[in-house]
Amino acid sequence: MKHVDTVIHADWIITADLNNTVHQAHSVAIDAGTIQAILPAEQMSQHYRGRKEHDLKGHAVMPGLINGHTHVPMNLFRGFADDLPLMTWLQDHIWPAEAKWVSAEFVEVGSRLAFAEMIRGGVTTCNDMYFFPEVTAKVANDIGFRAGVGMTIIDFPSSWAENIDMYFEKGMALHEAFKESPLIHVTLAPHAPYTVSETPLLRVKELSETLQLPINIHLQETAAEVDDFLDLHSVRPLQHLNKLGLLTPSLIAIHMTQLTDGEIELLAENDVSIIHCPESNLKLASGFCPVHKLLQQNINVGLGTDGAASNNDLDMFGEMRTAALLSKGLVGDPASLPAETTLRMATINNAKAMGIDAITGSLETGKAADLISIDLHSIETLPLYDPVAQIVYSVGRDRVTNVWVAGQMLLKDRQLTTLSETDLCEAVTMWQSRIKS
Amino acid sequence: MKHVDTVIHADWIITADLNNTVHQAHSVAIDAGTIQAILPAEQMSQHYRGRKEHDLKGHAVMPGLINGHTHVPMNLFRGFADDLPLMTWLQDHIWPAEAKWVSAEFVEVGSRLAFAEMIRGGVTTCNDMYFFPEVTAKVANDIGFRAGVGMTIIDFPSSWAENIDMYFEKGMALHEAFKESPLIHVTLAPHAPYTVSETPLLRVKELSETLQLPINIHLQETAAEVDDFLDLHSVRPLQHLNKLGLLTPSLIAIHMTQLTDGEIELLAENDVSIIHCPESNLKLASGFCPVHKLLQQNINVGLGTDGAASNNDLDMFGEMRTAALLSKGLVGDPASLPAETTLRMATINNAKAMGIDAITGSLETGKAADLISIDLHSIETLPLYDPVAQIVYSVGRDRVTNVWVAGQMLLKDRQLTTLSETDLCEAVTMWQSRIKS
After folding, report:
1. What's the pLDDT at B260?
2. Region A182-194: what's the mean pLDDT?
3. Are B282 and A328 in contact (CB < 8 Å)?
4. For residue B393, what is the nearest residue in chain A, using CA coordinates?
5. Which of B106, B130, B182, B398 could form a disulfide with A398 if both were Cys (CB 3.0 to 4.6 A apart)?
C-alpha cells in the first residue's frame, strides 16, 4: 500500500491523452503535485491510500482547462465599452482608459479577479500578455495558479515602460525572476507586427532561440490590419514574420482570422501554433479563424477567451461551446469540430502551443496534477449519454466543484482556497467606482 | 399605506418597456399576481408594504426571459446524438428514438425537466410544440410556469395521434381544456410546410381566425428544405404559405435561415413574427437567420433555444449572448445587435410573437408579475458598468436567484419551490437508462 497526498474517485476520468481515453469508475492518485497513477477504483484502493480522499459520485474529472489567450488585468474593464465599432472601442475607450488607469495596483487587482474567475470556471492555466507582467506573475505564483506570462514588447511607451529597451530590460528581469518557478512560464510577447518594428522583432527571435521561449503575437486579427500593413509594407503581416524567420514551432499566432490557403500551408510547414478566440472575434466583428482547415492540415490549434473587455468573460466552457457551434455553422457541417476535438483545443493543444505539454494539458502519469472535477448530476446536465459532449455542449462553469493545480486545491466545493472572494469583490468595486467616475 | 403580497427592492429594475427604462434603486410592488407599482425605493416604502419583502442588494430585477421556441419533452434526448450530419441525426437517431420512446409518461418527465431547467435559468415562459401537448400543459399549469403550448399538426402518425383528424381533435380538446387558464396559452402548431399538406394548413388558418390563436411553424430552416420544396411544389415554402393566406400577424415563423430580400419585405408587409434560434441553427449547420436585416425592416424578431436535443440546453442567457455575438460577426459590425435589443428579443418580442405582450414580457404596471432577480455582485459579474450589457455578455444563468410567475415564487434563493429536484433527477436517470440500453 502506497501512501500519497490525494486520491480522487470519479465516475468518469476524461484524460485528453493521445487516444482521448475516457475511463469509467476510475481514480487518480496524486503525490508531490504529480499524477502517480490512474487506475480502476478497486485497484486504486488496493494499492494507494490518499491522506485526502475525494469520492466524487456523478462527477467527471478532467485536465484543467487552459485559456490560450488572455489579458488578465483587463478584467477591470469587463463591460466598460460594448457594442461599439472596433476603432471607436479602442481609440475612444480602451486606450484612453488604459493610459489613465493601468498601474501596478490596477494589474494586481485585475489579475486576482481574472485568476479567481478562471479558477471558479475550471481553468488551471492561462497564457497572458499585458503590462506589468511581473505583477501578474507574482499574483499567479502566490495563489498557486499556472500562468504563461508574456514579456510584452511594443513600440509605444506605456505606464510600464518608456521605450523599447525598457520593455526588453523589464521583460528579461521577469524571465530571470521566474525561470526556476514551476508555475510561471515566461514567454516573449511582441504585441503585433503593426505595433512592433523589425529590429525588436529580430531581437525577440534571437531571445526565443537562446532562451527557448515561445513567442505570443496577435496576428492577422482583422482584414483592416492586413490591408493597412499591405499598404505600408507591401507584404501581409504573416509574410513579414516569415521573412524575419519568425515562423517556427515556438510561434503562437493569436486570432488569425485572415488566412489564404497558401498561408495555411506555410503555417503547417513551419509547425506554428494558432490560438482561436471565437467570442472576441465575433464581438469585435474581426472575422473568422478557419479552424476546420487548420485542423485538416494538422496545425495545432488552441483556444482562448482574449481579455474580458472584448468577450466579456474568461469562461472556457462557453468558449468551447462557441468554437464548436460556430465551426459547424460556418463550414455547413454539424460534424465539423466535434466535442472531443474541441476539448483538446482547450487543454492539450494549448499546452502544446505554450511548450508545456510535457507538464500539463492531459491526465497522464508523471504530469502535473492540474485537474478539475465537474458535477454532472444536475437538472442542467441530465440525462447524460456522453460526458465529453455534455461538457462541451451543456455544462456551465458553475458545475465545476474542485480545482487542483500541481496538486494544490485552489477550489474546494466551489470555494476559493487561496483568495478571499469578499476582499476581492471589495477591491474590484473600488476600481469600478474610480474608472466609472 | 397599501398592503400587497410582495415588494421587491433591487439596485436595478430593467423594464424592457418601450423606452428600455432601467431604474436604479427602485422597487416593484406585486399583488394578486400583477405588478401594482414600480417606484423609487423610498417612495415605495412610504406607500406600499409587502406581506413579503425582498431586499436584493447588488441585484438586477428584470422581466422573466421568454424562450420563443422549445420542444420541452426532448430534454430527455439532451446529448443523445451530437456532431452528426442533419439527416443522419434525424433519420438514424432522433426519429427512431421518438418512435420508440415518446409517450405520455416520457412527455411528463421531459416537460418537468425542461421547466425545472428553465426556471433555474430565469425563464418564466416558453413557446412549445410537441406530441402529447395536454401533458406538457398540465405540468406547466401544475408547477405555475407560463407556457404557450402548441396543437401539433403533422401529416404523419405518431404515438399521440393516428391521423390528421386525430391531431385536430386532440388539439381542439387541448384548447377547450385550457382556454380559461391564465398560464397556458394554446397555439396552433403545424410542424412545417414540408410535413403538413394544404388542406390541414387551410384548416389551421381558419382556426387561427376563428379562435384568435397564433400559429407556430418551422419555416425555411435549411437550404435543403427550400430546395426540396421547390422541386416538389415549384414554389418556396414561404410563398406557399403566402398563397394559402397564412402570412398574418398571427404567424410565428421559426428559424428562417433562408430568406431573400423580397421575402423579408413580404414578412414586414404582413407583420409576421420570426423566432431566431441561433444555437440550434449553428449546431445543425442549418444556416443563418438574417436578424440584422429583419430588425431593420421593423420585423418582430424573438429568440428561442429550440429543443435540448439540438442545442443542448434551454439557457436563454447563453442564447442572447450567442445571438448578439453571431450577428456582430456575420454583419461585420460590432454595433450590430446591441445588448438592449438582444434583451428585448428574449422578452417583449417573444411575448409579442405569442400575442401575450399585454400580459407579460416587460415590467409595467398592470402586467403579470413574471420577473426574475439576478445577483450581479460576484467574481464573474464585477466590475459592473452597464447592467444590461453585463446580463447579455457576462451573466451565466447560475446568477439567477429568484423567479416569480404571475406573482408566485417558483425559484427562491436558487431552490425550486414547486418541483422536487431530487425526484426529478431520479426520474430522468431512469429514462436515461432506458433510452441508453
Report:
1. 98
2. 98
3. yes
4. A312
5. B398
Mean pLDDT lowest for which of B42-56, B85-99, B231-245, B382-396? B85-99
Cα end-to-end span (Å), chain B: 62
Compare CB distances from B379 to A379, A383, A421 and report the shortest one's residue.
A421
> Is A429 within 8 Å of B394 when comparing Cβ atoms?
no
Q: Answer whether A283 sits within 8 Å of B328, measured CB to CB.
A: yes
Q: Name B14's bridge partners.
A: B22
Mean per-residue pLDDT, B243-254 = 98
- Find the CB nearest B396 among A83, A385, A398: A398
CA–CA separation, B288 and B330 (whole Å): 9
Q: What sign for the dihedral angle of Cα A130, A135, A141, A145?
A: negative
ipTM above 0.90, yes or no: yes
Q: What is the pLDDT of residue B137?
A: 98
> For residue A343, is pLDDT > 80?
yes
> What domains sit in chain B, N to C, each tagged with a CATH number?
2-63+369-406 (2.30.40.10), 65-354 (3.20.20.140)
What is the torsional sign of CA A203, A204, A206, A207?
A: positive
CA distance A111 to chain B (A): 12
Of residues B285, B428, B435, nearest to A332 (C-beta): B285
Give residues with Cβ within 8 angstroms of B296, minimum separation 6.
Answer: none
Chain A residues within 8 A of B436 when measuring between CB atoms = 385
Closest-CA residue of B relative to A84 is: B335
| Residue A90: pLDDT over 90 | no
Residue A86 scores a pLDDT above 80 = no
Confidence category of residue A215, pLDDT binned at 50, 70, 90: very high
Burial A316-355 (b: 16+ CB within 10 A, else e): bbbbbbbbbbbbbbbbeebebbbbbbbbbbbbbbbbbbbb
In terms of CA atoms, which chain B residue is nearest residue A289?
Answer: B329
pLDDT tens digit sequence for A13-36: 999 999 999 999 999 999 999 999
How confident is the model over B406-433, as a mean pLDDT?
98
Mean of pLDDT over chain B: 97
Residue from B76, B109, B380, B434 to probe the interface with A (highest A Cβ count within 10 Å): B380
Of B83, B279, B336, the CB nearest to A334: B83
Q: Which residues of chain A have a CB within 8 Å of the CB of B283?
A: 325, 328, 334, 393
Residues of A in contact with B401 (CB under 8 A): none
Distance CA A70, CA A302 (A): 13
pLDDT at A109 over 80: yes
